[in-house]
Amino acid sequence: MTDPRDIILRPVITEKSMEQLAQNKYTFLVHPKANKTMIKRAVEEIFKVKVRKVNTVRVRGKLRRVGRYAGYQPDAKKAIVTLAEGHRIKEFFEDVS
Fold this sequence. Notes:
22% of the residues lie in helices and 36% in strands.
């Protein structure tokens, strides 16, 4: 996992994550074994911004049913990244709002 793009999998675009943009917080789906230091370095390298804080959340997969068949979505790990003042990520988030 030395490549930053192996750590940051994709952005999370939800109503709650869009509201957090006002507080300069960005949400990403990350590799389950990535720690906060690895996530911070990856975001700074990919987006050329200064990260102030990283919070992580482990999300258990939900039960989903299709007819009589049931299964679980995969477990995931999310990172909520707070950027320093004056820094923004425009690639995914600014075009949506």
